[in-house]
Structure formats: C-alpha cells, structure tokens
Design brief:
By secondary structure, the protein is α/β, with parallel strands linked by helices. The chain folds into three domains: 103 residues, D-Maltodextrin-Binding Protein, domain 2, CATH 3.40.190.10; 118 residues, Periplasmic binding protein-like II (D-Maltodextrin-Binding Protein, domain 2); 67 residues, Alpha-Beta Plaits (2-Layer Sandwich). 29% of the residues lie in helices and 28% in strands. A six-stranded mixed beta sheet has the order 2-3-1-4-11-5, with helices on both faces. β13 and β14 form a beta hairpin. α4 packs across α5. The longest helix has 18 residues. The chain is globular and about 80 Å long. The site of adenosine-5'-triphosphate (ATP) has 17 residues, from α2 and α3.
C-alpha cells in the first residue's frame, strides 16, 4: 500500500480493538466513511474521502489527538482525563458508558477513599489516581478531588511533573489488566477500575466506595485543527445524526381531532409533531420522533386516549438538533 499521500489526508484515530471498536465501525458506516483495511495494517485509506483511518489502542488516542499526531479520534473520556492533554470534545457518543471507581474487598474495613490515603492502590489509570489521591492528601474532600480531575485534565505534562514533586504518601501501582485481582493477591488495599454492570467487581468480591469520574466514548479533535479542515465539522454532524437515529424511532398514528392536544403532549416530537389531515375531517394523522427506550409506554398511552393504527418505524439516519 502507498501511504505517500498521507500528508493531504485528515487522520482519524479509531480504537483498534476492545470495548469501543465495534461501535466505532458502526458510526463510520453510518457516516459513510468508506475504507478498505488490509489484513494486519493499522492505517486504512478512505475510498470516498481524503481521510486516513488510524487504528490505535484506545489508551493512546487522546495523546495522539492532543499532541497533533492525528486530527480526530474516538476514545473514552476516562482516557482523555488519564492522558492529561487538551483536546476539543466534539460530541458524546452514548456508548462505552462506565464509572471509574475506588473499590475495596467487601470484607475490608475501609468505607471511603480518604481512608485509603497512605495505603496501596493498583490501577490502570495511574495519572488520574495520582491526581485524585494528591488532592485527598492535600485535604480535599472526595467530591473536590473528583471535580479537580476534569479541570486538571488540561494541565501540561510539565505541570503534572511539578505537581508530582512532593513525596506522595499513597502508593499507586500501575497494572495494565486484571486489576480486580490485586486485593485478593495481597498487592493492594484498594483498586481503581472501571465499572459498568458491576459483574467483574462482584465476582472479585469487591465493592465501590467512591466514584472518580463517569465516562463515555467521545469524538475528540486537536484544538488547533478544528477549524482548518471542514471535514471535521461534516463528520461531527454525520456522527451525531447516526447517534440520534439509534436513539429514536418514528411513531405514526391516527387520532380524533378532539384528542390531538392530549396526543401532542404524549408525542411532542423533537420540535413539534407533523400533523396531517385525513379524508375523515374528524381525524388527523400524527408523525413524531420518540425515544426508542420509551416507545412501549408511549404506545400504551396513545391507545388509552383512542389513537389507532399506531406504527413504529426504525430511523436509519437523521439530522436533528441534539437534545
Ligand atoms: N465494562 C465497560 N463498559 C463500558 N465501557 C467500558 C468498559 N470497559 C471499558 N470501557 C470503555 O472503553 C474504553 C476502552 O476499554 P478497553 O477495555 O477496550 O480498552 P483497553 O483494553 O485498555 O484498550 P487497549 O487494549 O486498546 O489499550 C475504556 O477506556 C472505557 O472508556
Ligand atoms: O462492570 P463490568 O460490566 O463487569 O465491566 C467492568 C470491567 O470491564 C473492563 O474490563 P474488560 O472486560 O474490558 O477487560 P480488561 O480488564 O481486559 O480491559 C474493566 O476494566 C472492568 O474490569
């Protein structure tokens, strides 16, 4: 493959595997960013845009975007905070939702994060955890320490090094995986790890005693590149359209004109529902976007006020003002 024209292309970083990978491929497809990825190659040229997709570990993407090695990327907010770089968050993608939390064995005597100051912590997020415990050691409450993580995610590497100069009391060990085993192995008094369903935590006989941050996948770009390439804005809008389409369905039904006001309250649509007259002047047809998660309940309510011929359609793609 010839990568000689890479300089002219927008570089878009995608997690090469793991939790975010499949969802990212779905977004690329929905945004019509076509590409052919050759076996084992981590760079794929788009066949319909001046774009090169760069497949990277999710953990490297924030740094690559922040330092300008690539223009655009998708990764978790946790990874952005951990990298400690400044990036522009263009849109939240609604998947990869999880919390980064302090966990201890159920049988442990520790009941809050402050009690772990001076103890041993194992984590894959040593940057975030160092900042969090530095704040606790400096007398911050757990809430203040967690709030500081977001603000300080934009600090430079130099500032982080300077901040780390005083001898920290809490020992933080970096582990790249199987963090949940650290307490049982006698390596840690507590861990800081991601929690979604809580299954991993429960299996390891751990429980949460504090939450450092909530995270989801985000589309990020390098702040200096944001307005230099119009494709960044085009992709942001396309991706938001795909996400909205996944979140909503289109609900069509007929309702007696006298019940229209009640029906509009149930299905107000994004801006307003489309109301069309029917041959029978006493009735109207209504079409409105409805959140997929609420559709069964909405259909029940519509039936109760006398709506008929209630049809629900999947939306493949859309452009709507975000909620
Ligand atoms: N259980 C989970 N539920 C939801 N989202 C998660 C979960 N675990 C991780 N994530 C999100 O997915 C991101 C990538 O996690 P994953 O476990 O795929 O990465 P990884 O294995 O560390 O990545 P890589 O091996 O590519 O460095 C995390 O930073 C987080 O934002
Ligand atoms: O609350 P849960 O739904 O159980 O999810 C949490 C687990 O998911 C992640 O690990 P993952 O399964 O991605 O494997 P990894 O440890 O190899 O990254 C994370 O590190 C937790 O261990």
């Amino acid at each position: 493959m010839d990568f000689s024209d890479l300089d002219d292309r927008l570089l878009f970083a995608i997690p090469k595997k793991g939790r975010l990978h499949e969802n990212c491929l779905t977004l690329l497809k929905g945004a019509d960013i076509q590409f052919h990825r050759r076996n084992r190659l981590d760079i794929a040229l788009s066949t319909n845009h001046p774009v090169a997709l760069v497949f990277l570990p999710a953990s490297d993407i924030a740094t690559f975007v922040g330092e300008g090695n690539v223009d655009l990327g998708i990764t978790g907010q946790d990874m952005v905070a951990e990298a400690g770089v400044h990036v522009d968050e263009l849109t939240q993608l609604g998947f990869g939702k999880c919390n980064l939390s302090v966990q201890v064995p159920i049988s442990s005597k520790y009941t809050n994060a402050k009690e772990l100051v001076g103890k041993r912590i194992v984590t894959s997020f040593s940057g975030i955890v160092r900042r969090y415990f530095d704040s606790l050691e400096a007398g911050a409450t757990e809430e203040e320490a967690a709030a500081g993580l977001i603000k300080s995610s934009a600090t430079t590497k130099k500032e982080q090094l300077l901040a780390a100069l005083p001898e920290p009391k809490t020992t933080i060990h970096l582990a790249s995986g199987s963090v949940e085993a650290a307490c049982a192995l006698g390596l840690a008094d507590g861990i800081v790890d991601l929690v979604e369903s809580g299954e991993t935590m429960r299996e390891a006989k751990l429980h949460q005693i504090a939450t450092l941050l909530s995270s989801q996948a985000v589309l990020i770009c390098n702040p200096k590149r944001r307005h230099t390439n119009p494709l960044i804005e085009t992709f942001r809008r396309r991706i938001e359209g795909v996400i909205a389409a996944q979140k909503y369905v289109l609900c069509n039904y007929n309702i007696a004109r006298e019940s229209l006001a009640a029906a509009v309250k149930i299905t107000p649509g994004k801006k307003a529902p489309t109301v069309s007259p029917l041959e029978d002047g006493a009735w109207v047809a209504v079409s409105a976007m409805v959140q997929k998660a609420t559709i069964a309940d909405i259909m029940d309510q519509l039936e109760e006020i006398g709506a008929s011929d209630i049809l629900v359609f999947q939306i493949h793609n859309c452009r709507v003002v975000s909620a």
